[in-house]
Amino acid sequence: MSATQGQGFGHVKTWVFDLDNTLYPADCDLFSQIDKRMGAFIADAFDLSIEDAHALRQRYYFEHGTTLAGLIRLHGVCPDSFLDYVHDIDLDVVAPSPELVAAIDALPGRKFVFTNGSRKHAEAVAEKLGVLDHFEDIFDIRALDFVNPKPTREAFDRFTGTHGIETANAAMFDDLPHNLETAQAIGMTTVWIDCRATGRPEHQSHETWSILPDYIHHRTEALAPFLTAIASALAEDAESPATRLPQAQFCLT
Questions:
Q1: Which residue ranges does the chain devote to CATH 3.40.50.1000?
Q2: Which tens digit of pLDDT belongs to each residue from 215-236?
Q3: Would you give the end-to-end CA distance of the chain in angstroms?
Q4: C-alpha–C-alpha distance, residues 179 and 187, integer Å
Q5: CA–CA separation, 233 vs 204, rounded Å?
Q6: Maximum Cα interatomic distance, the chain, rounded to a whole number of Å
Q7: Phi and psi for 14 in degrees, rounded to 5?
């Protein structure tokens, strides 16, 4: 079943990427490390068992958009202390990606990272991948005052307003469909990085999808080859407007 829904990339002048499970492959499983450290932080801060701490972590994530937002709103937790602790992880599992570097470099226009994580974490991961110098800016959770994360409209409005982004000429890449729902609502072309195979709770809810919702224009399981196909098609379009992206890149299986 085709995952293209009438929305190409010829109009795109700004490329916006989520960080975790988007720029790097989900099978790096960085989030298992982050999850463990979030649980340990909460257990220590509130004298809870690890089981209860993880239950609280998950509840705040679903109720407030991020665990951190819930901790700040309800408990006044220092965001820097939390972020420094939970992002103190082993990045050796993230390998350099020359293919991703070349693909991002080949895209025409502006490029950004838009993440609910910290700039420090995003810079460290992007540096490991080799793509750090290819982005105009990293718009992180601090820029969103810590408590207004994606997928809120306020987060997107603040990001696009800060950088003067014309949403009708922008594309958003994210592993979480609810973030793409807001992106599409403000006029962006959306690409879902399908991580259902990870089995993570935030990805499992989409396992039964047989057709994409209207707010997702494209789907892929592998970012680098997808971007390579886009860049190649755009280059061909410059010579032949009739050229289309290879449909094999956009199949929902």
A1: 14-28+94-250
A2: 999 999 999 999 999 999 999 8
A3: 7
A4: 13
A5: 32
A6: 64
A7: -135, 130
